[in-house]
Specification:
alpha/beta
């Protein structure tokens, strides 16, 4: 159905089983100097768009970069405690050999990425903040109408998802988890707005209205040729599907809904939300 991992890909993800040296395995890969980066807040549709673009144009693609997504590594990259180029060569060479690389967390160190890849192309995916935040909470199995989730609710979550709620590592101070998620959305949007000339913008809502045409248009903007029909793949789940059954007013409650409206208002206006 999709581009299957190469033999060396499979070997990499089974290093302990096969006892291969990472340095030897990485020697089979060459970093792509001109990749296409797909960025955006988590749960904004980046996975679907990156995968469908890769399938339609027969380009290799990476959905997420686990070594960078790991919270400890991500925070060190952001504060430049580790050199991004060195880190990629030592930990992420497989993903960075691909033609399309999707990783939402790239948005948090975009200037470093742009500096390292000046000839790369960048795509930013934005989603209506209320729906984006609800999807993130669905992913974490958290309700949206609380003042604060309990520690019992948070304990089962991987540290990376806990840190989407506690965003002090991004310089976001707040007293409410909805405020934190709203400010996180706004911070990602602000990176795009400050660098609009570098990005191709895709609104997730436009993608939903016409998935195939959105991919065709995006491919044209990226100077890629459509070579394969993706009609049979358009509705496949690329990430765990959220629950949209409740109206936003019911899911968030009046107070938390107002928090999102207030904190995301400026960014929403930029995208005519």
């Amino acid at each position: 159905m999709f581009n299957s991992p190469t033999l060396s890909d499979r070997l990499f993800y089974n290093l302990k089983k096969w006892r291969f040296s990472r340095s030897i395995l990485f020697s089979f890969y060459k970093l792509n100097p001109t990749p296409i980066f797909i960025l955006g807040n988590e749960k904004s549709g980046t996975s679907a768009i990156a995968a469908l673009l890769g399938e339609a144009t027969n380009q290799t693609y990476a959905i997420d970069v686990p070594s960078i997504y790991k919270q400890e590594n991500l925070e060190k990259i952001i504060v430049k405690e580790v050199d991004l180029k060195t880190f990629i060569n030592q930990n992420s060479k497989i993903e960075f050999s691909k033609q399309i690389i999707k990783e939402p967390s790239f948005i948090w160190f975009y200037p470093q990425l742009k500096s390292l890849y000046p000839k790369a192309k960048f795509v930013f995916i934005v989603r209506y903040p209320h729906a984006n935040i609800r999807s993130m909470l669905n992913r974490m199995n958290l309700k949206g109408d609380l003042e604060s989730p309990s520690q019992t609710d948070l304990n089962p979550l991987p540290i990376e998802w806990q840190k989407t709620i506690d965003n002090r590592w991004l310089g976001i101070e707040n007293s409410n988890y909805i405020e934190s998620l709203a400010l996180r959305w706004s911070k990602a949007v602000s990176v795009y707005l400050k660098n609009k000339e570098d990005f191709i913008l895709i609104k997730y809502e436009d993608f939903l209205k016409g998935k195939n045409q959105t991919i065709i248009d995006l491919a044209n903007q990226l100077d890629l040729k459509i070579s394969t029909s993706i009609e049979d793949k358009l509705d496949l789940p690329f990430q765990p599907k959220g629950d949209n059954s409740l109206p936003l007013e019911t899911f968030f409650g009046e107070e938390n809904l107002e928090r999102i409206e207030s904190l995301c208002q400026k960014g929403m206006q930029e995208f005519n939300y």
